[in-house]
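Thread title: Can someone regenerate the structure for this chain?

I was given the following input by a collaborator and told the matching structure tokens would be attached. They weren't. Posting the sequence so someone can regenerate them.
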Amino acid sequence: MTRGYPFPLSVWALLGLLIAGLSYRHPTHATSPDSLHYLRVATDWQAYDGTFPPGYSLLTWVTATLTQLPVLWASKLVNWLALGVFGWLWAGRVGPKRAGWLLTLWLLPGNLRIATYTWSETVFVVGLLETVWQLNQQKQNRPNRVWLLLALLPWVRYVGLFMFVRRVPATSLIGAGLLLALNLFLTNHLFGGPRLLPTEHLPDLFEMATGAILNEFLLYNRPHSNPTVFWLALTGQAISVVGLFLWLRRNGFFVETRNPLVRDLFRTGLLYFMVLFALRCLSPFDPLNERLMLPGSICWLVGLVLAVQSQHSMMSRSPERAEMRTNPS
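Best answer:
Regenerated them for you:
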């Protein structure tokens, strides 16, 4: 029964070591002003002001209470445990080997940084991917927990409400409504304060969105030092990405996008980006950095990995491949 599980367990253990080591070595132990807000609420619930939903702080408080760890290190444990839950759930669906490869997505530098920091994005992304899976089960008339996940997503990040553009159960609306009612009672605002404020001019917003997309797909991270090196690196990465896309297309890997789950992952990622860009035009929150882009990009990455792996399995089982294995000459 444990065949194949050493791989995802090893990846998860490596993630834990990296999260702990990077947090310990970082000058602020991988915290930011947002992190301090989460930690302050986790230690004193009277500090809750609706700036961020209480879900992540609640998980940190529960973990700190159960383990007797300081809230800072409890938050790191929350992120690592969330990744473990992700690996465990998907191992039972796509197999341990594939789940291990999905876990390796968190070893990408940007994703690892987000998982290391005391931020709610890691928990939110795990919940979002689980919601996509449960919605896929709902479409096939199988038992699911869509109502619960849709109700809980906004409690981790307000943007979780973007999943409410489709028809949702009444219980999910009640769960999200309770959060908004709590904020309204405590702060006289649905989201802890005024959100619809003047933003940058349209050309600046367009440049920001374009840069965010390039950063996700080319991983160039806007270096500022040597322009020549920057453009050479950008050009090389662009050629690599286009070449990879053409190679995958030529080998038929994108045929698997007809898989309903893969298609739902791509659609969810696209919907998230559309809602995020629309909200950024209406509210001057943080720039469109890797932290804000992560939920959409990882939906696409998970979908791509599943599509490639499924197509590879289909090709391996084909009569032509079987003939090659039995008669290599």
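DSSP finds 14 helices and no strands in the chain.
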